[in-house]
What we know:
Layout: H1 13-17, E1 24-25, H2 30-36, E2 47-52, E3 55-61, H3 62-69, H4 74-78, E4 92-95, H5 100-110, E5 119-123, E6 126-131, H6 133-213, H7 220-237, H8 240-271, E7 279-281, H9 283-293, H10 295-298, E8 302-307, E9 315-317, H11 319-336, E10 342-350, E11 354-361, H12 368-371, H13 391-401, E12 405-411, E13 415-423
Parallel strand pairs: 1-2, 4-5, 8-10
Antiparallel strand pairs: 2-3, 5-6, 7-9, 10-11, 11-13, 12-13
Helix pairs in contact: 5-6, 6-7, 6-8, 9-11, 11-13
Amino acid sequence: MNAPVHVDVPPSDLARLRLDVAPLSAASSVDAAADAFLAPGHARLLCLPIGERGRIVGTISRHTLNNVFLRRFGRELYGTRPVTSLMNAAPLRVDLAAPLEDAARYVAAHLGAPITEDFIIEQDGAYAGMGIAIDLLAALQRRVDDAYAALKASQAQLVQSEKMASLGQMVAGVAHEINTPLGYVRNNVEMIRDLFEDGVGALAEHQTLLDLLTSETLDEATLAAQIASCQARGASLADAGLVADTRALFRDTLHGVDTIKDLVVNLRNFSRLDQARTADVSLNDCLEQTLVIAHNAIKHRVEVIKRYDAALPPARCSPSQINQVLLNIINNAAQAIDGDGGKLLLKTEADDHWVRVHIQDNGRGIAPEHLAKIFDPFFTTKPVGQGTGLGLSISQQIVHAHGGTLHVVSRLGQGTKFVISLPRRAPAGVRESEA
């Protein structure tokens, strides 16, 4: 047996898999080859290289030796023969500089079943060592796992980016919606503040009157003047119209504050986009919450037609994620409607297994050549800077993660219809709510 081979190799992927294995001499016997497999360093090898005049001429495998020795008198008949009589003259050869993927593809394509061979590693045509086929495939699997993890991380970053973009749109819309009730709440408070100051003045006048009535040096003229002043103040505050107006101001102010509260609550619900816990949710309620957030995009120019199933059963889903899907589709519908006179139909229905939401607009529609691409990541027909091309892709991923489907039909110039179908019970992959 020749001495082990040591080759100065670069730190490539195959170099990490390379084993220093001394080739068997072509003149070695079959018995010598069998004994070589018993060496501790060869325990994991399926085959050993055979060298002649400085080059590798083949390999001898454990499988071949086992088949020979299991025959009757196999060892006696073949043991003294040269190892080349049983060798594989066409072993698997991989260049040390080959990319891991190319090496794994080549080895996998030439492996038999069962796996009986490892592979020879060469550098510039010279023998550099042996590689174990299972180690190569395992290294490729780790590479695939790492790539998948990186892809998932990148996807998570893109999803988060899209969520933040959606949240930014929502914040802008909600800020606009909050501005109106906030304006008249402020105006009402300023008017009530003036009335409050009048009330404070009236109390001061009555306190002065009380001081006069308890004074030991009562001046009747001063008392009469003070009584007249209190009567005038009281008459102005007791005016029936003023009291009714003040009560109306309080009602309007409370209504405005409640409107702001509802907007903030809806924004808070939508901002929890990272929550994946599920609950039994009415999709009718999800649509209503989404319409509050999307109100700024559709008000004054889009008529919303609601055809909700009043007896719609709940769907087991993550409400924040489904709200994001609804918001993406409704915002897209609003953007597809030019000018006024737009219509947006929202319809819900259910059967024994599915709950469905139909969202249909009468906007521009989608060209046939674009329809097959709308769920592709980064595909968008919007101008540069106005769309990431991730909204519908993420929406489809969310729906699929819930075990549902997202279908679309569209006619150019007539409008588009999306149908979201969710199972009434969540699949096992969707996290349940914590107790």
